[in-house]
Design goal:
The complex is a heterodimer of chains A (about 90) and B (about 425). Chain A is built from one helix and six strands. Chain A is mainly β. Chain A has one domain: Folate-binding fold, CATH 3.30.2270.10. A four-stranded antiparallel beta sheet of chain A has the order 3-4-5-6, with no helix packed on it. In chain A, β4 (about 50-60) and β5 form a beta hairpin. Chain B has about 425 residues and is of the alpha/beta class. Chain B is about 30% helix and about 25% strand. In chain B, strands 1, 2, 8, 9, 10, 11, 17 and 18 form an eight-stranded mixed beta sheet that branches. In chain B, strands 5-6-4-13-14-15-12-16 form an eight-stranded mixed beta sheet, sandwiched between helices. Chain B has a two-stranded antiparallel ribbon with strand order 3-7. In chain B, β13 and β14 (about 290) form a beta hairpin. The N and C termini of chain B lie far apart (about 60 Å). Classes of the chains: A mainly beta (about 90), B alpha/beta (about 425). The interface of A and B includes residues 37, 43, 45 and 53 of A.
């Protein structure tokens, strides 16, 4: 069982967390001017790095969304950072 | 002294003769050549899909200047890590056209390859646990029949006839209402599928190059003209990627992204026990499925891990979920000792259908996104991918699975359609 560190609650069981997507994706705007190609890229194309990765995760029990830097081969988590400003 | 004649063909007679002379006359099943500077086609990935593609390039298209490049050993990735089940119980016509074609090819594959793949058509039953699920089961059965494959809606009694040890008590968390039966489905020896294709492809002149990692692509004037490898540059007219969980790594090297995330999918086997289960059973409720291998081991699988991963090992929470599913389904299996647990890295696509077609880089082609279901599709995947590499054009069966579907929106959404868990 792996522990992930929620920025709000501290270390918790991995089963309490859900993968929310890759970090740094920005929804293209304004919608009427977005081409099908760009929309498809935003919706479906994803980085799938072998090694270091930066992802958005959510801690289901407290609802905290945060940034997690981890390694997809060793599963070592380097940092978790809140997305909130304060 | 005359050197003993080496056996090219496997048969009962050659087995008998070799048995009488100490098995000294078998020759290597395939060569281990050094890579040539150039080929007509290169396939990256020596799993079932890649080896089958090479075989059909030679057989169906007469191409023999073909190489399969494998960074490890053939069949050492997902081909040797899956739970060996072959079925075509999908919902959409596009999927059934692909997977049922594959099942048909599997039915004659052992004879065609002159290699015993131990294909046993013992049937798959997908068990439903409520009236509502029985309606979904009926819908899938109807769809399968309309799509031209065999399917039958089973009653509770019929399910229990097939698998009498299933939990039929009043206390069952997931009671048996009935299920979907596909009698032509079954299991095969997965290593033998890789080895059989390797041997047959090699016999037709294909070079199988193991222990050779692709480190980059040769791109000239925007077109892929070969690969850089740990054994030097190899050029080719057409390059195919058949690297399953590592497709994202290949795409990154070639400078594009795919709608794929890699996850670990784990499986496990018990100690061997006497015959007690002669079909494949899947519960919609637990997502756990199992069958008994020819050695007597109970082979158990379930859903993918919840964390994107390239680690070829599974996390304990999913292992616990799968095993608790098994205990719900077969209470008597609580006595089993589990022997081994392992995982493969699967390439999961949002609509749970494969991606077959040209990549964004001309000259470079994709055969990926099989997710948890690539093994059953090896023969058909090989045929359609060979067609693509040889002609540059889609086979009719592979056209709906083009990468373009994520732009047009014509997804083949088997994740929703056939209710597969992953």
């Amino acid at each position: 069982m792996q522990l992930f560190s929620c920025p709000f609650c501290g270390p918790r069981d991995e089963t309490e967390f859900t993968f929310g997507g890759e970090a740094g994706k920005i929804r293209p705007e304004p919608a009427p001017e977005v081409s099908a190609e760009d929309w498809s890229k935003y919706l479906h194309r994803v980085g799938n790095p072998r090694g270091a990765t930066s992802e958005i995760w959510v801690h289901q029990t407290c609802g905290e969304y945060f940034l997690m830097e981890r390694d997809t081969v060793s599963h070592v988590v380097s940092t978790t950072n809140a997305l909130r400003k304060s | 002294m005359q050197p003993p004649r080496l056996h090219k063909r496997y048969s009962a007679l050659s087995l008998l003769r070799e048995g009488l002379r100490g098995h000294s006359g078998w020759q290597q099943a395939w060569r281990s050549p050094e890579p040539k500077p150039a080929y007509d086609a290169i396939i990256i990935g020596g799993g079932g899909q890649g080896l089958a593609t090479a075989y059909y390039l030679a057989k169906n298209h007469g191409m023999t200047k073909v190489a399969v490049i494998e960074k490890g050993w053939i069949g050492g990735g997902n081909t040797g890590r899956n739970t060996a089940t072959i079925r075509s119980n999908y919902f959409y016509p596009e999927s059934v056209a692909l997977y049922d074609y594959s099942l048909k090819l599997y039915e004659t594959l052992g004879r065609e390859l002159n290699y015993n793949i131990m294909f046993s058509q013992r049937g798959v039953v997908t068990v439903a646990h409520s009236d509502a699920e029985m309606e979904i089961a009926a819908r899938i059965v109807n769809a399968m029949q309309i799509n031209g494959t065999d399917a039958e809606l089973f009653s509770r009694t019929q399910v229990l006839e097939k698998a009498p040890l299933l939990n039929s008590g009043d206390e069952a968390r997931y009671p048996i209402f009935g299920g979907v039966w596909q009698g032509r489905a079954g299991v095969a020896r997965h290593d033998a599928v890789a080895w059989g294709y390797a041997r047959a492809a090699d016999a037709r002149g294909v070079d199988i190059i193991q222990d050779c990692a692709v480190t980059g692509f040769l791109i000239e004037k925007g077109r892929c003209v070969g690969v850089e490898t740990s054994k030097g540059e190899i050029r080719a007219e057409a390059v195919g990627i058949a690297t399953a969980g590592n497709s994202g790594v290949m795409a990154d090297m070639a400078g594009f992204t795919l709608p794929i995330k890699s996850y670990s999918l784990q499986a496990m086997v018990s100690e061997p026990v006497k015959p007690c289960l002669d079909t494949v059973v899947l519960y919609l409720g637990t997502g756990t499925y199992m069958f008994q291998s020819d050695k007597g081991e109970i082979v158990v699988g379930g859903g993918i891990d919840r964390i994107p991963s390239y680690a070829q090992r599974g996390n304990p929470p999913v292992q616990a979920t799968v095993l608790s599913g098994m205990l719900e389904m077969f209470p008597s299996f609580a006595q089993l000792k589990m022997l081994r647990q392992w995982a493969g890295v699967v390439d999961v696509v949002p609509d749970s259908s494969p991606i077959i077609g040209p990549s964004p880089v001309p000259g470079l082609y994709l055969n990926c996104g099989w997710g948890t279901g690539g093994f059953k599709a090896i023969p058909a995947g090989g045929v359609v991918f060979a067609h693509l590499l040889a002609t540059g054009e889609h086979h009719d069966i592979s056209r709906p699975f083009d990468l373009d579907r994520f732009r047009t929106g014509r997804l083949v959404d088997e994740a929703a359609g056939s209710g597969i868990a992953h």
